[in-house]
Amino acid sequence: MSAYEFLYQEDLYQLTDTILILVDKPWEEMRDEDKTLLGKILGSVKLSMDKVQVLHRYSTSLQELIQYQPSKLISFGVALQENAELYTVKNHEGVYFINSEALSSLTDVSKKSLWIALKQLFQ
To answer: Which of 30, 62, 63 is nearest to 49 (CA)?
Structure first.
Protein backbone atom coordinates (compact mmCIF):
# COMPACT_ATOMS: atom_id res chain seq x y z
CA MET A 1 0.00 0.00 0.00
CA SER A 2 1.36 3.39 -0.99
CA ALA A 3 1.71 6.18 1.56
CA TYR A 4 -0.15 8.43 -0.90
CA GLU A 5 -3.09 6.12 -1.48
CA PHE A 6 -5.36 7.95 0.96
CA LEU A 7 -4.08 11.46 0.35
CA TYR A 8 -6.74 14.04 -0.60
CA GLN A 9 -9.76 11.86 0.05
CA GLU A 10 -11.94 14.84 1.05
CA ASP A 11 -14.80 15.84 -1.24
CA LEU A 12 -13.04 19.14 -1.79
CA TYR A 13 -10.49 17.41 -3.99
CA GLN A 14 -12.90 15.19 -5.90
CA LEU A 15 -13.55 16.46 -9.42
CA THR A 16 -17.22 16.79 -10.23
CA ASP A 17 -19.32 18.03 -13.10
CA THR A 18 -18.95 21.70 -13.88
CA ILE A 19 -22.29 23.48 -13.51
CA LEU A 20 -22.39 26.87 -15.20
CA ILE A 21 -24.99 29.50 -14.25
CA LEU A 22 -25.40 32.37 -16.67
CA VAL A 23 -27.00 35.61 -15.46
CA ASP A 24 -27.97 38.77 -17.34
CA LYS A 25 -26.63 41.25 -14.77
CA PRO A 26 -23.27 41.66 -13.06
CA TRP A 27 -23.31 40.01 -9.63
CA GLU A 28 -22.76 43.35 -7.90
CA GLU A 29 -25.88 44.80 -9.58
CA MET A 30 -28.19 41.88 -8.80
CA ARG A 31 -30.84 42.45 -6.15
CA ASP A 32 -30.44 40.52 -2.92
CA GLU A 33 -33.83 38.89 -3.59
CA ASP A 34 -32.53 37.50 -6.90
CA LYS A 35 -29.37 36.15 -5.26
CA THR A 36 -31.50 34.50 -2.58
CA LEU A 37 -33.81 33.05 -5.24
CA LEU A 38 -30.82 31.63 -7.13
CA GLY A 39 -29.60 30.02 -3.92
CA LYS A 40 -33.03 28.43 -3.38
CA ILE A 41 -33.18 27.20 -6.98
CA LEU A 42 -29.77 25.58 -6.62
CA GLY A 43 -30.73 24.14 -3.25
CA SER A 44 -33.75 22.47 -4.83
CA VAL A 45 -31.35 20.28 -6.85
CA LYS A 46 -28.94 19.81 -3.93
CA LEU A 47 -26.39 22.37 -5.11
CA SER A 48 -25.01 25.47 -3.46
CA MET A 49 -23.37 28.63 -4.74
CA ASP A 50 -19.92 27.26 -3.98
CA LYS A 51 -20.56 24.24 -6.25
CA VAL A 52 -21.34 26.24 -9.40
CA GLN A 53 -19.64 28.80 -11.59
CA VAL A 54 -21.66 32.00 -12.14
CA LEU A 55 -20.97 34.08 -15.25
CA HIS A 56 -22.46 37.36 -16.37
CA ARG A 57 -23.12 37.96 -20.07
CA TYR A 58 -25.52 40.28 -21.83
CA SER A 59 -25.35 37.97 -24.84
CA THR A 60 -23.27 34.95 -25.74
CA SER A 61 -23.32 31.72 -27.69
CA LEU A 62 -23.07 28.11 -26.67
CA GLN A 63 -19.83 27.88 -28.66
CA GLU A 64 -18.26 30.57 -26.45
CA LEU A 65 -19.42 28.86 -23.26
CA ILE A 66 -18.04 25.45 -24.24
CA GLN A 67 -14.56 26.72 -23.36
CA TYR A 68 -15.60 26.47 -19.68
CA GLN A 69 -16.29 22.75 -20.23
CA PRO A 70 -19.61 22.65 -18.39
CA SER A 71 -21.63 19.48 -18.21
CA LYS A 72 -24.77 21.45 -17.35
CA LEU A 73 -25.75 25.05 -17.92
CA ILE A 74 -28.66 27.15 -16.69
CA SER A 75 -29.15 30.51 -18.36
CA PHE A 76 -31.21 33.17 -16.61
CA GLY A 77 -32.22 35.91 -19.03
CA VAL A 78 -29.58 35.24 -21.69
CA ALA A 79 -30.83 33.44 -24.81
CA LEU A 80 -28.42 30.69 -25.81
CA GLN A 81 -30.14 29.72 -29.04
CA GLU A 82 -32.40 31.68 -31.31
CA ASN A 83 -36.05 30.77 -30.77
CA ALA A 84 -35.09 28.29 -28.03
CA GLU A 85 -37.95 27.15 -25.84
CA LEU A 86 -37.80 28.20 -22.22
CA TYR A 87 -37.68 25.52 -19.52
CA THR A 88 -36.78 22.68 -21.87
CA VAL A 89 -33.60 20.64 -21.46
CA LYS A 90 -31.50 20.84 -24.62
CA ASN A 91 -28.18 19.26 -25.58
CA HIS A 92 -25.42 20.95 -27.57
CA GLU A 93 -22.18 19.02 -28.06
CA GLY A 94 -22.63 17.14 -24.79
CA VAL A 95 -23.62 20.20 -22.76
CA TYR A 96 -27.12 19.99 -21.34
CA PHE A 97 -28.74 23.37 -20.82
CA ILE A 98 -31.93 25.18 -19.86
CA ASN A 99 -32.97 28.65 -20.97
CA SER A 100 -34.94 30.54 -18.34
CA GLU A 101 -36.30 34.02 -17.88
CA ALA A 102 -34.17 36.41 -15.84
CA LEU A 103 -34.29 35.77 -12.10
CA SER A 104 -36.09 39.08 -11.56
CA SER A 105 -38.80 38.08 -14.08
CA LEU A 106 -39.68 34.64 -12.70
CA THR A 107 -43.32 34.20 -11.71
CA ASP A 108 -44.90 31.34 -9.77
CA VAL A 109 -45.89 29.68 -13.07
CA SER A 110 -42.42 30.03 -14.59
CA LYS A 111 -40.80 28.78 -11.37
CA LYS A 112 -42.90 25.62 -11.63
CA SER A 113 -41.84 25.13 -15.27
CA LEU A 114 -38.21 25.70 -14.27
CA TRP A 115 -38.51 23.15 -11.48
CA ILE A 116 -39.80 20.50 -13.90
CA ALA A 117 -36.89 21.18 -16.28
CA LEU A 118 -34.37 21.12 -13.42
CA LYS A 119 -35.64 17.69 -12.29
CA GLN A 120 -34.97 16.41 -15.83
CA LEU A 121 -31.54 18.06 -15.99
CA PHE A 122 -30.37 16.70 -12.63
CA GLN A 123 -32.05 13.27 -12.58
So the answer is: 30
**Statement: residue 33 has pLDDT above 90:** yes
Look at residue 68 and tell me whether its pLDDT is greater than 80. yes
In 3D space, the residue among 70, 118, 74, 75 whose CA is nearest the CA of residue 94 turns out to be: 70
**How far is 101 from 98, CA to CA, in rounded Å?**
10
Distance CA 80, CA 60 (A): 7
Tell me the CATH number at 68: 3.40.470.10
CA distance 54 to 8: 26
Q: How many CB atoms lie within 10 A of CB 54?
A: 16
Instruction: Read off the pTM.
Output: 0.83
